[in-house]
Design brief:
With 407 residues, the protein is an alpha/beta fold. It is built from 12 helices and 17 strands. The structure holds pyridoxal-5'-phosphate.
């Protein structure tokens, strides 16, 4: 059978139920790591026979590899809507990209952020001013903006990894820019589901991860304005980051451009795989993919009406636009135990816990179940999906969840 670029590899993975019966594994944990698609696997397979060092050799392998790496950068730049004033830097993942940027901010920068963020976008920032992830975020930001002195940034997630809800990035960005505040978007959960573009989002910087974008080969991206990045100390000191090194300690000239922050040998297969997915998504009918995902979301929420023991949590309310992620409070049940049973007894993979967003999950579980959420105290159960997900996956999840909660 010929595969197309966005077909999921391993879509028919079978697992055995306790009865010994084999069933198709239902993967509903895309928000943690999405499966690999054909485009990414094919790009890596195509690269490997030519694979060599990037930026470091004269031989044909090295030249082909350098070319492949820089072409990947161009493709990713286009995918992220980066312009001539921007750099596209390959990193390990979103966490790495945000840490890199946090260290590149000018001295004395203030960081505005909401406490609904994933820890990767909560912890790295200097002088953080945390705003509550409840009520109207635009009003909360408006109240926080006056009186800022020196450089300031707002860092905001595009889509919540807990509830899937979209944050009003454009509105927040316009308001921040009106006060001279630069805007950073954590697009780890947005990029797999929606078009991302620095210009359309109104962002100065964007970060995302290959492993959440169907390219599980370990590359991430930071794209955005070059000036602060070129002025900052390199993120990783070493080869590539240095243009020349003298005989005395401290006698060195740093590279400019992406190389300044990509010290060491880069992850070429990761970059090439990620670029292949970016190309495949750019060529796909994104509206059709979006409709399919929204249909699955509606089916899931409709199905969950028959499971009142599970309470969907939300930051902004049920009508907020969202990507294919739903988190459930399970009053009186331990979400970790429920997830374990879904895996072992029903062949369904979901995630339980606080999803590296502890402040938000504490707040959401508190309001959903008035302080009682099973033995784990504050955890949720999360189902998330994307390319290759099917209506039958959603139906199996709903049926299995009801069975587990009632037995
Ligand atoms: N930001 C968000 C919204 C996430 O969901 C995640 C991962 O779950 C991250 C950042 C961190 O991504 P990574 O683990 O790829 O660095």
């Amino acid at each position: 059978m010929t595969m197309s670029a966005l077909d999921v590899i391993g879509d028919d993975l079978k697992v055995a139920l306790p009865t010994g019966e084999p069933v198709r594994f239902v993967h509903l944990d895309y928000a943690a790591s999405a499966p690999c698609v054909e485009a990414a696997a094919a790009a890596v397979a195509d690269l490997l026979p030519r694979y060599g060092s990037v930026h470091r050799g004269a031989g044909v392998r090295s030249q082909a590899s350098t070319l492949a790496y820089e072409l990947a950068r161009d493709v990713v730049a286009e995918f992220a809507g980066a312009g001539p004033e921007d750099h596209v830097i390959f990193t390990r993942n979103t966490t790495d990209a945000l840490n890199l940027l946090a260290r590149a901010l000018p001295a004395g920068t203030t960081t505005l952020l909401f406490d609904g963020e994933h820890h990767a976008n909560l912890l790295p920032w200097p002088n953080p001013r945390r705003l509550p992830a409840e009520g109207d975020p635009v009003e909360a930001l408006r109240a926080a903006l006056p009186g800022l002195t020196g450089p300031a940034v707002l860092t905001i997630t595009g889509a919540s990894n807990v509830t899937g809800e979209l944050w009003p990035v454009r509105e927040l960005a316009d308001l921040a820019h009106a006060h001279g505040v630069r805007v950073i978007v954590d697009a780890a959960q947005l990029a797999p589901h929606r078009r991302i573009s620095l210009t359309e989002l109104g962002a100065d910087y964007i970060a995302f991860s290959g492993h959440k974008l169907y390219a599980p080969f370990g590359a991430g991206v930071l794209a955005g304005r070059a000036d602060w990045l070129d002025a900052a100390e390199p993120y990783l000191l070493g080869g590539g980051a240095s243009a020349s090194v003298g005989d005395l300690p401290g006698d060195r000239v740093w590279s400019t451009g992406p190389a300044r922050h990509e010290g060491g040998t880069p992850n070429l297969p990761g970059a090439v795989a990620l670029a292949a997915v970016c190309t495949a998504l750019a060529e796909a009918d994104r509206d059709a993919l979006h409709r399919h995902e929204q249909d699955l979301l509606a089916r899931l929420r409709e199905g969950l009406r028959s499971v009142p023991e599970a309470v969907e949590v939300s930051i902004f309310g049920p009508d907020q636009p969202r990507v294919g992620i739903v988190s459930l409070a399970l009053p009186g049940h331990d979400p970790a135990l429920v997830a374990d049973r879904l895996g072992k007894e029903h062949g369904i993979g979901v995630r339980a816990g606080q999803f590296c967003a502890h402040p938000l999950v504490r707040r959401l579980t508190g309001s959903a179940v008035a302080g009682s959420c099973g033995t784990s105290g504050t955890g949720l159960l999360r189902a998330s999906f994307g390319l290759g997900s099917r209506a039958e996956d959603v139906d199996r999840f709903v049926t299995a969840l009801a069975a587990v909660l009632r037995s």
